[in-house]
Design brief:
This protein is of the alpha+beta class and about 400 residues long. The protein contains 10 helices and 11 strands. A 5-stranded mixed β-sheet has the order 6-8-9-11-10, with helices on one face. Pfam families: HATPase_c (PF02518), HisKA (PF00512). It comes from Candidatus Coatesbacteria bacterium RBG_13_66_14. Its EC number is 2.7.13.3. It catalyses: ATP + protein L-histidine = ADP + protein N-phospho-L-histidine.
Length: about 400
């Protein structure tokens, strides 16, 4: 799931980057075309003025007014150089540069050459119509050199800046995600080591006790043998659990009610349930595809958590201890519209919102000596291995309920 989310974010970053780059280029091209259109219009009107002056048309004043208006519209650097190079008119050059002397004329002509590298110069021509032949003769009068306005230069950096921001924040996100995964993996490894010690501790301690009893009273060998056999089977079950939890197990049609019943019987024998009443309502739900070894582990984890919540009520969110309270743990198995449901409910102190949000996070625990792996394993076994759902409902003073839904 985490890898898929990371991949989706990377794809989103790429799409946003491509979108910014495409939109910015389209906007820049549009602005460049508009400014070129203005330059061409200026050149056309100027050519018309030149022709009108030559022909002595009365529209000279009107055309000159239009040219002045267009000249005021030129908000970008522009240079008009006469055909013989003697007359130069400049607008919007850096530092309000004007060709007032030889050095400034050379600089202006250099800028005009640079402008031609980015934008094709536009000719200003005088047009003469020969009345006898009707042909039009064009004579080059001047050349308009121009470059993109400063706003286009600024906009050209927009996709670079946008992609840079995306790369920076994307890199920070990936780094944070990497650190989170390392922290989570470390918590899982530490939790697995402690869980292994905890799982093995109970049957091993029991076996040592039975051996000591045999040494003191050999006559009890018959009863002790049965108990030792049960503990050895328990050790084998623990080995199978850790062998299967590392990869998706094979799911086989299994009597779910029997699996739950066996897990509850073990809880009644080996989990401290002082002042706690463990009740069950197990309906016959038939065969369900599951891993009996791992699902039994789920039941034990949930019942153990409930028992510890009753033995150490706290305040629903701290690791402080209070006086153990009498309580009830209820396990209900029933059919549901989309499969089967298993509920584990306790009458403990409940969880506050912060604890509830982090309940399934690896390494998070409200117990004094908890290692925060039990519920992480529960969710992994139910969601990833059995393709089911697990929901948590809890509030301070109202107890806690875990609801597991499995497809059947």
């Amino acid at each position: 799931m985490l890898r898929r989310i990371t991949l989706y974010f990377l794809m989103l970053f790429v799409l946003v980057g491509v979108g910014i780059f495409t939109y910015s280029n389209a906007l820049i091209n549009r602005l460049e075309n508009e400014y070129r259109s203005i330059s061409i219009a200026y050149a056309d009107v100027s050519s018309a003025i030149i022709t009108a002056v030559t022909r002595g048309d009365v529209s000279l004043v009107l055309l000159k007014d239009i040219t002045d208006s267009l000249r005021r519209m030129l908000k970008f650097p522009a240079i008009v150089v006469s055909a013989n190079g003697e007359q130069i008119e400049c607008r919007n050059l850096p530092g309000d540069l004007q060709p007032v002397d030889a050095a400034s004329r050379i600089e202006v002509l250099r800028l005009a050459a640079e402008m031609d590298e980015d934008s094709d110069p536009i000719p200003l021509v005088e047009r003469r119509v020969h009345e006898s032949t009707g042909t039009v003769e064009e004579r080059l009068v001047a050349t308009l050199h121009y470059s993109s306005p400063e706003i286009i230069t600024t906009l050209s950096w927009l996709p670079v800046v946008g992609i840079a921001f995306i790369l920076i924040f994307g890199g920070l996100g990936l780094f944070a995600n990497h650190r989170f995964r390392l922290s989570e993996q470390q918590a899982i490894w530490v939790g697995l080591a402690k869980e292994t010690a905890h799982q093995l501790g109970t049957p091993v301690s029991s076996l040592l006790g039975w051996l000591e009893l045999l040494g003191e009273d050999p006559a009890e060998a018959g009863n002790v043998r049965e108990e030792m056999t049960r503990d050895v089977k328990r050790l084998g079950q623990i080995v199978n659990r850790f062998a299967e939890v590392g990869h998706p197990p094979a799911l086989e049609p299994t009597d779910l009610r029997e699996v739950v019943r066996e897990a509850l019987e073990y809880c009644r024998r080996r989990i401290s349930l002082a002042n706690v009443k463990l009740e069950d309502e197990l309906a016959d739900v038939g065969l369900v595809p599951l891993s009996a070894v791992l699902f039994g582990w789920v039941i034990e984890n949930l019942v153990r958590n409930a028992a510890e919540a009753l033995a150490n009520p706290g305040d629903g969110g701290t690791k402080g201890r209070r006086r153990p309270r009498r309580g009830r743990i209820t396990v209900v198995l029933r059919r549901a519209p989309r499969g089967v449901e298993l509920e584990v409910t306790d009458s403990g102190a409940g969880m506050n919102a912060l604890v509830r949000r982090r309940a399934f996070d690896a390494g998070h625990s409200t117990k004094v000596r908890g290692w925060g792996l039990g519920l992480t394993l529960v969710r992994r076994i139910i969601v990833e291995y059995h393709h089911g759902r697990i929901r948590l409902k809890s509030a301070p003073g109202e107890g806690t309920r875990f609801t597991i839904t499995l497809p059947a």
